[in-house]
Amino acid sequence: MIFIIINLIIVLLICVLAIILYLCLDKNIIYKNLKSKHVVVTGGSSGIGKAAAVEAAKLGAHVTIIGRDEQKLKSAVMDISNVCTAQGEQKVQYAVLDVTSDYLLIEKSLSDLEINIGPIFMLINCAGMCICGQFENMKVEDIKQMIDLNYFGTAYPTRYVLKEMKGRNEGIVVFVSSEAALLGIYGYSAYSAAKWAVRGLAESVLMELVGTNVRLMLAFPPDTDTPGFQIEELTKPKETKLISGSGGLQSPEEVGKKMIHDALNGKVYSVFGFSGKLLSLLNCGSLESPGQVLLQVFSLGFLRAIMAVVLLSFHKIVRDGLKERLDKGKEKVK
């Protein structure tokens, strides 16, 4: 009898929690398309940024892509223009801009873009880079460059658009972080720090947006087959390749498309594959939906046990790599 009563109490508590969450959380805002909306994508000349811009154009948006290489931008504009659903009506343009430059310059550039096409409805922060290596062996200028591009390259454009979006009481901001912002990984020390900063900024701004109709989504893509990833591979230690490769390799088209649709469907987090879902449930604290909270409440113990086993396998990779280097060192001494 006592067990029946306990079970009834647990069920009652679950129902009460679900009702509280449903009543207190901001209502989900869903957009079916982006027709005549202005979408700005930083890092939009290639990779995930370009893929997201293409998907936005397919959904009827006016698209602006931002980057530093004008030739790549011109080529991307042609590709994006070719998929527009309303040829002749949709506008696609580019802006040559370093998003780590002086904030006033970024502010003026974004303001000029709005004059040409209209207010920015969606900002997708895709500009980023990764240089791998053990932290003590990394160049100081590389560490700074990653912080500047990954963090400030997201923070500066976001700061500009938020005030106007709040004034209009509509808009979507997308932050592109990384699974490396959910778990410290060998060889990603400096990169992870930058992407954790992006995650921290996103989750703080999310709370600042409570009560408004402005939405922010945080994406955690795994390894994605982009030009930037090919460059990253050049500096990636063997251990990092083995660990990060366990999450699989996504195509930029899959990631970009999913990001756009997750944002339009009011998602707070956009994750990819089993590893992304596991890590986000364990580490993401912002409130997305009653279902998310309830799943975290009842599964975290079990998920933590799974993650402990995964981490131990990563530790073995690191130990094996250390042993291999030590053995090679001994052979050289001989």
Automatic annotation (TrEMBL):
Record pathway: Lipid metabolism; sphingolipid metabolism; Sphingolipid metabolism
A GO CC term attached to the entry: endoplasmic reticulum membrane
Top-rank taxon: Eukaryota
Protein name: 3-dehydrosphinganine reductase
One GO BP: 3-keto-sphinganine metabolic process
Function recorded in the entry: Catalyzes the reduction of 3'-oxosphinganine (3-ketodihydrosphingosine/KDS) to sphinganine (dihydrosphingosine/DHS), the second step of de novo sphingolipid biosynthesis.
Family annotation (InterPro entries): KDSR-like, SDR_fam
UniProt-annotated location(s): Endoplasmic reticulum
Catalytic activity, reaction form: sphinganine + NADP(+) = 3-oxosphinganine + NADPH + H(+)
Pfam families, A to Z: adh_short (PF00106)
Segments traversing the membrane: 6-25, 172-191, 293-314
Family to which this protein belongs: Belongs to the short-chain dehydrogenases/reductases (SDR) family.
Keyword line: Endoplasmic reticulum, Lipid metabolism, Membrane, NADP, Oxidoreductase, Sphingolipid metabolism, Transmembrane, Transmembrane helix
Molecular function terms, GO-annotated: 3-dehydrosphinganine reductase activity
The enzyme's E.C. designation: 1.1.1.102
